[in-house]
Amino acid sequence: MAAPLFTSPASDDARAAFAAKPRGLVDKVMTVSEAVARFVRDGDYFATGGFGANRIPTAVCHEILRQRKQHLGFSGHTATHDFQILCAGNLTGRGQTLARVDAAYVVGLEARGLSPHARRVMESGALQVAEWSNYTLALRYTAAAMGVPFVPARSLLGTDTLGNCPAKVITCPFTGEKLAAVPALYPDVAAIHVHEADRYGNCRFTGTSVADIDLARASKRVIISCERLVPHDEMRRNPHRTQIPFLCVDAVCEVPFGSYPGNMPGEYFSDEDHLKLWMDVEKDPAAFSQFLEDHIFGVRDFTEYLDLCGGLHRLQALRQRELLLHLGK
């Protein structure tokens, strides 16, 4: 039996939602708390930008936990620490943050190993799960950004993954070849962390874009967290550098070091010690519960979390490491 399709790929329905979004230059600056309260609703399908532990919207994921959003769908497109954070809302006495997951790469934190708590959550049987490859999950955003209900691909054919996801085998009307029809994914809300944004939501970032340009166009609501706000005139001086335009964006939140403990290309290195701490405390549910109380539920915002993790001194060291300044270069 094929895995369920958690969201409708109907392009006309999505177009109706997009048509209702404002097209004017509206000031969208707000706090992360305000953005999550306004734009993340119980039962929503949520997606994060970035890739692995790189350029992830950590601050938004923390706030989703603090506000106890429930029964979310989630797109696990090489989701490492962001998925690990959201899993902390399951099996910890605070309801069920995650209810259904399109999984391409979750539970693992790459070379760092497997998240013990994320593994408990995935093995609990409380989640509905559909499997994809990283490529085909990205293609789902591509289809949505194009405004079509699916795109054809050769990927998945001949693999066991095809039997564990809702993609369907079709016949090309031009050549008779067998292809996989990969359905569009239109998230209700996405969170993407970028280097710079103006107050209207024009965004730019450096490093690989992964699927974020398509994700911003595929999502019905978009929360942007940024390392720094820049004047709108700066965006207008270099319009070719804007990867995500204002018309896609609903909220802009200035959050310096907002990807911590993940990496931010050209800004700061990942905090491997803190990521290891997460992995270690997760082995003991009681210790993990206290860790969450100390670091997420017991703090007011992400700035307090950063202070607990070493504050400016630690963040400066990570910046030096990213720029190789710690090697004297």
Properties at a glance:
single chain; 8-stranded mixed beta sheet; 12 helices; 11 strands
Structural commentary:
This protein is of the alpha/beta class. 33% of the residues lie in helices and 17% in strands. The protein contains twelve helices and eleven strands. It has helices at 11-19, 32-39, 58-66, 81-87, 116-123, 134-146, 212-218, 232-237, 272-281, 285-297, 302-308, 311-322, and strands spanning 45-48, 72-76, 98-103, 128-131, 150-153, 168-171, 178-183, 189-197, 203-204, 221-229, 251-254. The strands form two sheets. Strands 1, 2, 3, 4, 8, 9, 10 and 11 form an eight-stranded mixed sheet that branches.
How much helicity do the residues have?
Answer: 25-40%
The helix-and-strand class reads alpha/beta
* Radius of gyration over C-alpha positions, nearest whole angstrom: 20 Å
Query: First CA to last CA: what distance?
Result: 56 Å
The total strand number stands at 11
Secondary structure tally, helices: 12
- H and E order: HHEHEHEHEHEEEEEHEHEHHHH
Unreliable spans: none
Residue-averaged pLDDT: 96
The 3D shape can be described as: globular
State which percent range the strand residues make up: 15-25%
- What oligomerization state is this entry in? single chain
* Main sheet summary: 8 strands, mixed
Write a short abstract of this structure:
The chain is of the alpha/beta class.
